[in-house]
Each structure stands twice: as structure tokens, then as C-alpha cells.
Design brief:
This protein is mainly β. About 10% of the residues lie in helices and about 40% in strands. The chain has helices at about 60, 135-140, 165-180, 295-300, 320-325; strands spanning about 5-10, 15-20, 25-30, 40-50, 50-55, 75-80, 85-90, 90-100, 120-125, 130-135, 190-200, 200-205, 210-215, 220, 230-235, 240-245, 260-265, 270-275, 275-285, 305-310, 315-320.
Length: about 325
């Protein structure tokens, strides 16, 4: 059976997919630099570790009115034959393999004048949802003669991006752009990539190298004879994962579990960590990571790597494998 891997994402209430083999990565939407002499659906550029990435607004690509951007938006970076392209999406959902025969040819509605390229290559049901498959080549195809200058030739970041955003939101867009630009391995050495999550009203950083993905928490099945930090088992694409509440280990007060989960790998087994929100991805220089305060280190021990400034506050950086391997978290009971 021929299977096609699809990256599925949401965009303003609709669900789309692209061939996952044509996806390089997904990043949080950064501030975009203006671009001249490009189609109107190319809404800006950003520097991704030294490579310039033009960014497509899917609304404009479908000839819809422009939309306002949100700090929760993502950019899916697509690989094409001529130039990488970014695609603004509301939320990245999952990667799913579908049989090729499950993808139906989209309906044709007759000739149009002028006729735009057909950007939709198929439709498929994924669970109860109808997913529209986009043709990456046609989606990213540039008119003849469109060229982009190198990153070092572009003007400095502009405040014109997302003018309706609040000052704190504009500052976050800009910080993301700078972090993505500076994330390359250079003379200053490697940088620490962190996913910024919120838990109990506090910011925590989790090393991106330990994270498999983020997802919404669906229905939980209780697990008998487990301590209170084991919230239950959840299904992720047919695989059962244990969902853990880290508040006890972090000395945070009890609260209702969050709606998001960080899926991490522990001893070759995936486990879910319940959090309230996933905010950002950042890259820290060595000098930006500070030793944890003595009181915090005494409470949490080796599971705390350090602290770093984020959004005007201090973020606690976690060593997730150490946190998950704490002896008191181990379940060793016979039912």
C-alpha cells in the first residue's frame, strides 16, 4: 500500500495539508521584513539561520482579503526546487500517513477568466475532518523574473509589520525574528533551543532536543493505582501515552490541568507533560542562561538547569529527562 505522509494544519477554521516530505520545519511567526517586486501574496521575508525565506499569506494566495496576524501563528517552511518558502498557518496539528487512494481529486468548477493555478490537489477525510491537500509547487510558484536579494542586502527590520499588534506583541514578533536569524552555529558557538511553556502562571523552558511534538490534550483514560501526578493515558494517533502533571515536582500549587501537552522521549518511550500554554521557541546564548537561585535549586535539584529572562520576567529552564526520571515519579506497584 502506497502511503503519503501529510503535515496537517489549521488556518482560520479550515484544515489543510501539504506533503510532509516537502516540509523543512515549522517556527513561530516572526516579524517579517518588507519585500519589493514580489506577488502580493508574498507578505514579507525573514532570516532563518542565514537563509532568506519569503513568506506566503494563504488568504492572499486564494485571492481572499488580508487577515491580521497573531502571536500564536506559525510559519511552515516548505522546500521547493528553486527557493524555500514559508506559509503562515494558524496551528500545526500533526503528521499523518494516508493511503494514496484515500485522497480524492478535487472538484473542478469550470473555466475562469483569468484562470488562477489550481492550488488544491486533493481532498481526504482524516478522522471526522475533511482535509484539503495543497499542491506545494503551484502554491509557491513565482512569476517569471521574481528574484530576492540576499539577507545582508535587505533593510533593517521594520515596524510596519502587523501594525494592529500591541507593543508587547510587536516586541515578541521582533524577538523571534532576531532569534531565528542568530540561531546558526557561528563563532559564538551553539545556542540552546528552548520551547517556552506556561505552567501555573510561570514560564518554563524545555530543551527542544528532548521534545517530539506539542498537541492538544484529548480524552484521558484513568490508570488504576497511580499517584496523583499521573493524570491518565491519552491516545495520540493510536498510541497510548502517559500524561504527567509536573506541578508537584516543581513545587507549584495544585490547579486544573492545562489544555496542551508536550510530548517528550524518555528511555525510548514517549510521555506527555500537561502544560497550560506553549508560547514560543527561543535560542539562548551561553551568557543568557544564569545559575538558578539557591532556594529554587534546593526545591527542585538537578531538574532545574538555570534561569533566563523572557518577556520581562524570569523563565526557569528545565532538564526534562532528569525531571521525568525522579525516583518519586516512578510507578512500581502490582494491581
Amino acid at each position: 500500500m502506497n502511503l503519503l505522509p501529510l503535515l496537517i494544519f489549521d488556518h482560520d477554521g479550515a484544515r489543510f495539508a501539504v506533503n510532509a516530505t516537502q516540509v523543512r520545519e515549522s517556527v513561530w511567526l516572526p516579524e517579517l521584513m518588507p519585500v519589493e517586486e514580489a506577488p502580493p501574496w508574498i507578505v514579507g521575508l525573514f532570516n532563518l539561520r542565514g537563509q532568506i525565506i519569503p513568506v506566503i499569506d494563504l488568504h492572499l494566495r486564494f485571492d481572499h482579503p488580508a487577515r491580521h496576524y497573531s502571536t500564536s501563528d506559525h510559519v511552515v517552511v516548505l522546500e521547493t526546487d528553486h527557493l524555500p518558502m514559508g506559509l503562515i498557518v494558524s496551528e500545526v496539528r500533526e503528521v499523518r500517513e494516508l493511503p494514496c487512494q484515500a485522497i480524492q481529486v478535487p472538484p473542478q468548477f469550470g473555466a475562469q477568466a483569468p484562470s488562477p493555478p489550481h492550488l488544491v490537489s486533493g481532498e481526504a477525510h482524516v478522522g471526522d475532518e475533511l482535509v484539503t491537500l495543497l499542491d506545494v509547487f503551484r502554491l509557491t510558484h513565482l512569476p517569471e523574473g521574481s528574484e530576492f536579494v540576499q539577507a545582508q542586502e535587505r533593510p533593517a527590520l521594520s515596524n510596519d509589520f502587523c501594525p494592529q499588534a500591541k507593543p508587547a506583541e510587536r516586541a515578541l514578533f521582533r524577538k523571534r525574528a532576531i532569534a531565528l536569524r542568530d540561531a546558526a552555529v557561528g563563532e559564538e558557538g551553539t545556542r540552546l533551543g528552548l520551547a517556552v511553556v506556561e505552567l501555573g502562571g510561570e514560564y518554563f523552558g524545555i530543551e527542544l532536543s528532548t521534545v517530539l511534538e506539542f498537541c492538544n490534550i484529548a480524552e484521558l483514560s484513568p490508570i488504576p493505582c497511580c499517584p496523583p501526578h499521573i493524570l491518565g493515558a491519552m491516545s495520540l494517533r493510536g498510541e497510548l501515552l502517559t500524561l504527567i502533571d509536573p506541578r508537584i515536582a516543581l513545587n507549584l500549587p495544585p490547579a486544573a490541568r492545562g489544555s496542551k501537552a508536550v510530548i517528550a522521549l524518555l528511555d525510548e518511550h514517549a510521555v506527555g507533560i500537561a502544560v497550560n500554554q506553549v508560547h514560543d521557541a527561543v535560542y539562548l546564548r551561553d551568557e543568557e542562561l544564569h545559575a538558578p537561585p539557591v532556594a529554587l535549586h534546593e526545591m527542585c535539584g538537578a531538574s532545574i538547569t538555570g534561569t533566563a529572562p523572557y518577556a520581562g520576567r524570569m523563565m526557569t529552564v528545565l532538564d526534562l529527562p532528569v525531571l521525568l526520571a525522579r525516583e518519586e515519579w516512578m510507578v512500581d506497584e502490582n494491581v
